């Protein structure tokens, strides 16, 4: 079975040429037996099933006899029509497929004497309808893993007579006993272009391999042999003549046919399992005549006028794109008041124009941008100080002189006292102030109302000759601040939007004209320009600013400084997700010691001569962005 030997050629050739057609091959749609059944009666659709095979989904329509059909486009979807057919009452009007497969759902309905089959399929899925006996197979192919990705939609295609060979080959791959249904609609896919013309698409050969060795054999006998081997019907024109000598080993029969036709300057036209062989010049002339007829049909077709309303787009902006689909006889005009397009052309072009407008006239995505600015700060400070001193008096007035000629009187007192600003509260139980504390070490902590604490102690002799004053003070502060700002704004796709809130701070400007008052803005502002991508994400350029006056730091004239916080970036965020576009974290730590020289460095006892201050400030700023497409279902394809 591997090949046919050339020695069988002379013996088998007369017997193998039998003018028959396989019983499973569907006759032409123009055959009355197909168009209306064997007795001229309509067919009945008795079953609809969906199955998956070899990565493709097939919708199988079971009729009681061979039926003609066509695939037309209605309302943006392909519909298979079977005229003169009746829907069996037991057939379900809706057959579910797979939610993530190529075929999602099949709807069957009866309209007059026509059965309509509508298929809801995944994006990027293409279908080809073929007939096999009493069945009609609608084969859909595509990559299921790519279904979630948006694809461009073809709404118009220039007619070309060079496409049907691939369709016929696809149908041959579905089942060996399947032929293309030759209705008027299917005939649009069948080409009259010869396979051997220059620039033809490279084809793959999958036919049965043969060995062929002939000498001066008639071309008709070679064609008959290849027809028998390939299980096809070959018809040669009257002007196909000549002899050929060749020797082929282990070559697919369809490749052998191509080589033989090229060698003799011939071409072929294939429709299903029927191949017509003729000279290239004749096929080229037929192709040119078909093109001429097609052009003549367009030129003679009646002109129609159609009003196409435009809802979301501007009709004047869509009109230039519509003009590209019109023929030389077509025209388009715009009524600005009603935003409606007036299109005149043949019916076929008008359908393409309407489909194009329906695809472009969609809602513009609206994006709600929400920014959240979170500021968190904490402060910690600790201040510990000491004040101590006193006085000693040895004199005759106090009754305790030294008894020496010199020095007879001795007086010692602390001198680190500033009567105007030295804290002395707590040294006397009778008064909050003490006139002369005579501090030797005066390093207090900053205590007072609402800050820290202090403890004073006074020691003295009976006669008042010896006095010791000690005052301990300490203050510690902790604080946490959290500020959340959340501006949000709604805008259209590719439109810039800004929202701001703040204050104007006046300040004086001295110039040659005198002193003028100017204003500085301190505000919270969100500026964004979003763009919705095809997969539903949001690409945007965003700038977030938060300025506020700082009255703790002022200029010489008392004008406050401005604390600026700003982030500007470009980013891509999925719809409804939140991203942190930026953050700033700062920490300031300080530790200071004030002391009396030398004495403050003494271990342990040095704390009696020191003031210690510790401070730790932390600040963190985070900016969040969340985009939401509010009309995603209406605006996204």
Overall average residue pLDDT = 80
The share of residues in helices is 10-25%
Q: Oligomeric form of this entry?
A: single chain
Shape: elongated
**Class from secondary-structure proportions:** mainly beta
Query: Whole-Å distance between the termini?
Result: 53 Å
Strand content: over 45%
Low-confidence stretches: 1-40, 144-154, 156-202
Work out the radius of gyration.
Answer: 49 Å
Number of strands: 30
Number of helices: 9
Biggest sheet layout? 8 strands, antiparallel
Essential attributes:
46% strand, five-stranded mixed beta sheet, 637 residues, 15% helix, elongated, single chain, mainly beta, 30 strands, disordered N terminus, eight-stranded antiparallel beta sheet
Helix and strand layout, with pairings?
Elements: H1 9-16, H2 32-36, E1 43-53, E2 56-63, E3 70-74, E4 77-83, E5 85-87, E6 94-96, E7 103-111, E8 114-121, E9 126-132, E10 135-141, H3 164-174, E11 209-218, H4 219-230, E12 233-236, E13 243-252, H5 253-263, E14 266-271, E15 274-279, H6 280-300, E16 304-309, H7 315-323, E17 331-335, E18 340-345, H8 347-360, E19 366-394, E20 410-413, E21 439-443, E22 453-460, E23 466-485, E24 488-492, E25 497-511, E26 514-532, E27 537-554, E28 560-574, E29 579-595, E30 610-629, H9 632-635
Parallel strand pairs: 1-5, 12-15
Antiparallel strand pairs: 1-2, 2-10, 3-4, 4-8, 6-7, 7-8, 9-10, 11-13, 14-15, 16-18, 17-18, 19-20, 19-21, 19-23, 19-24, 19-30, 22-23, 25-26, 26-27, 27-28, 29-30
């Amino acid at each position: 079975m591997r090949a046919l030997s050339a020695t069988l050629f002379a013996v088998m050739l007369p017997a193998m040429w039998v003018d028959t057609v396989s019983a499973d091959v569907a006759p032409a749609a123009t055959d009355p037996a197909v168009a209306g059944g064997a007795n001229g009666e309509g067919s009945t659709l008795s079953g609809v099933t969906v199955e998956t095979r070899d990565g493709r989904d097939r919708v199988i329509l079971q009729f009681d006899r061979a039926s003609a059909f066509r695939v037309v486009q209605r309302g943006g979807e392909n519909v298979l029509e079977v005229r003169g057919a009746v829907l069996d009452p037991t057939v379900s009007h809706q057959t579910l497929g797979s939610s993530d497969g190529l075929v999602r759902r099949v709807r069957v309905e009866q309209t007059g004497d026509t059965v309509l089959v509508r298929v809801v399929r995944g994006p990027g899925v293409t279908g080809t309808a073929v007939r096999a006996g009493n069945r009609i197979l609608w084969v859909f192919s595509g990559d299921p893993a790519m279904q979630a990705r948006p694809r461009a939609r073809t709404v118009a295609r220039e007619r070309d007579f060079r496409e049907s060979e691939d369709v016929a080959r696809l149908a041959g791959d579905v089942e060996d006993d399947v032929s293309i249904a030759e209705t008027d609609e299917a005939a649009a896919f069948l080409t009259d272009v010869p396979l051997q013309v220059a620039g033809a698409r490279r084809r793959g050969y999958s036919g049965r391999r043969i060995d062929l060795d002939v000498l001066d054999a008639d071309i008709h006998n070679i064609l008959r042999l290849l027809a028998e081997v390939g299980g096809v019907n070959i018809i040669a024109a009257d002007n196909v003549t000549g002899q050929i000598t060749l020797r082929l080993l282990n070559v697919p029969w369809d490749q052998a046919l191509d080589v033989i036709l090229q060698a003799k300057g011939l071409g072929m036209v294939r429709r299903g399992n029927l191949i017509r062989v003729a000279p290239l010049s004749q096929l080229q002339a037929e192709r040119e005549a078909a093109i001429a007829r097609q052009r003549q049909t367009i030129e003679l077709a009646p002109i129609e006028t159609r009003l196409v309303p435009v809802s979301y787009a501007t009709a004047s902006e869509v009109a230039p794109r519509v003009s590209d689909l019109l023929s030389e006889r077509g025209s388009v005009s715009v009524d600005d008041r009603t935003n409606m397009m007036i299109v005149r052309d043949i019916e076929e072009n008008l359908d393409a124009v309407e489909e194009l407008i329906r695809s472009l006239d969609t809602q513009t995505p609206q994006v709600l941008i929400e920014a959240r600015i979170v500021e968190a700060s904490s402060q910690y400070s600790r201040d510990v100080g000491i004040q101590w001193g006193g006085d000693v008096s040895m004199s005759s007035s106090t009754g305790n002189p030294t008894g020496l000629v010199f020095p007879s009187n001795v007086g010692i007192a602390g001198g680190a006292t500033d009567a105007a600003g030295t804290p002395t509260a707590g040294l006397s139980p009778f008064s909050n102030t003490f006139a002369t504390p005579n501090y030797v070490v005066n390093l207090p902590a900053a205590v007072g109302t609402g800050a820290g604490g202090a403890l004073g102690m006074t020691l003295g002799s009976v006669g008042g000759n010896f006095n010791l004053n000690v005052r301990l003070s300490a203050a510690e502060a902790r604080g946490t601040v959290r500020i959340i700002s959340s501006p949000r704004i709604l805008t259209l796709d590719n439109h810039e939007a800004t929202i701001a809130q703040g204050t104007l701070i006046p300040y004086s400007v001295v110039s040659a004209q005198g002193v003028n008052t100017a204003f500085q803005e301190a505000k919270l502002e969100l500026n964004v320009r979003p763009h919705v991508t095809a997969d539903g994400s949001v690409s945007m350029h965003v700038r977030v600013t938060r300025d506020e006056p700082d009255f703790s730091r002022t200029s010489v004239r008392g004008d406050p400084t401005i604390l600026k916080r700003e982030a500007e970036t470009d980013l891509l965020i999925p719809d409804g997700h939140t991203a942190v576009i930026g953050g700033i974290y700062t920490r300031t730590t300080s530790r200071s010691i004030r002391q009396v020289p030398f004495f403050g460095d003494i271990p342990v006892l040095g704390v009696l001569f020191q003031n210690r201050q510790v401070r730790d400030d932390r600040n963190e700023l985070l900016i969040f962005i969340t985009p939401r497409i509010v009309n995603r279902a209406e605006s996204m394809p």
